[in-house]
Amino acid sequence: MIRFQHSEYLYALAILPLLVALFWWSRRQRSRSLSAFGDPAIIQRLFPDVSNSKPTWKFVLFAIAYSFLIIGLSNPQIGTKLEEVKREGVNIIIALDVSNSMRAEDLKPNRLERAKQAIARMLDKLSNDRIGLIVFAGEAYLQLPLTNDYGAVKMFLSAIEPSMIPTQGTNIGAAVKLAVKSFNAEEKRYKTLIIITDGENHEEDAVKAIKEAHEEGVVVHTIGMGSPEGSPIPTYAMGFQTGFRKDRSGNVILTKLNEKSLQDFAAAGGGVYIRATNTETGLNIVLEEIGKMEKKEFGTKVFTNFEDRFQYALGLALLLLVWEIFISDRRNAWWRKVNLFGHISQKKAVYSESVSMSPKETI
Questions:
Q1: For residue range 143-167, what is the model confidence (pLDDT) as tens digits?
Q2: Does residue 361 register a pLDDT over 50?
Q3: Euclidean distance between CA atoms 21 and 14, whole angstroms
Q4: Which CATH number fits domain 84-302: 1.20.1260.10, 3.30.70.1560, 3.90.550.10, 3.40.50.410?
Q5: Which residues are CB-neighbours of 43 under 8 A, at least 6 positions away?
Q6: Which of 123, 234, 275, 322 has a CA positioned 20 to 30 A from the CA of residue 106?
Q7: What crossing angle do the helices spanning 206-215 and 259-268 adopt, rounded to 10°?
C-alpha cells in the first residue's frame, strides 16, 4: 500500500498545466516575432547555432523534475507490515435517491448535490464504522458494499448522478430490501440504514419493507430533501440547463417533499426523521443516534508500518534538473556540420545552372 504523508503538497501539481500553457504561448510569440522580422528559413541560416528543439526538451525535463520534486516533498510511503486491528463500530448503509426530482434547486446547489456534500462531511466525523452506498430511483443498485475505506466511499459518492439509473421513480422499498441483503443476515444488531430522499412517488411496499428490515435488526432513519411547497425540476442537454420539466398540458411540474411518508418510514424503522435545510441536513442528529447504538468489534487488516520513499523521487528530480542545466540552447558542433538539406539544395542549384547553360557556353 502506498500513501503520502503530506498529501496536501500534491495540489502543487495543478500548476503544471499553467506552466505548459505559458511555455506554449512564449514559443508561439517567438515564432510570430521571427515571422514578422523576416523569412524564418533565412533567419535560421543567419543563426545556424540556434536550436529550435532544445528549449522544448529542456522544458520537458524541467516539468518532469518539478513533478518528482512535489511527489518527493509529499513523502510517499510504502506499507511493509499488515496487521489485524480490532475496532468497534456499526454497519451503516446510505440509500441515496438519484431520481430526476433530486435535481430540484430548493436546496442549494440542488437536492442531490446538497445530500452528497452532507454525506462527505459525515464521513469526516466517522472513524470505526463501516459504510455502504446504495443508489435508487425506479430501481436500486449497490454502489459500494460495506467498507472501512472512507476514501473509496467519497470517490464513488462523487460519481453519483441521476443519469446512472435509467428507470425513473422513487422505489424506496427496493432500496430497503437491497440494504437488508447487504447486511449480515446472522446479526440482529449493529445495523443502520439512512434513506436520503424527497419521498415523492414512492412505491406501495415501502412501509412493509421497512418493517421487515427493522425485524432483522436494521434501524432506519430518513432525511427529507426539499420543501413541501415544491420546486421545478431542471432539464439539461450537453451539461447546460434548457428549461424545466412539464406535464402533457405544458405546465411546469413541481416536485414536493413528502414529509408524511418519510415520518412514517422512520417510525416503522425505529429511527428518526429530519428535514434537511440549506444550513443543516440532519446527518449530525443521525450520527448522535448511531452513537447511542451498541457497537460491534470488527477485525480489520491494516498496514501499521510504513517506510519513507521520498529520497527516490527527490534524487530523480535532482538528476533531471542537472541534466536540464547542462543542455545548451545551441546546436551541437557536429550537427551543425551535417546540413543535409543545404547540400541537396546546393546540388540542385548547380544541376539547374548546368542544364540552363547552352552547349556553346558549356564548351
A1: 999 988 888 899 999 999 988 888 8
A2: no
A3: 12
A4: 3.40.50.410
A5: 34, 37
A6: 123
A7: 20
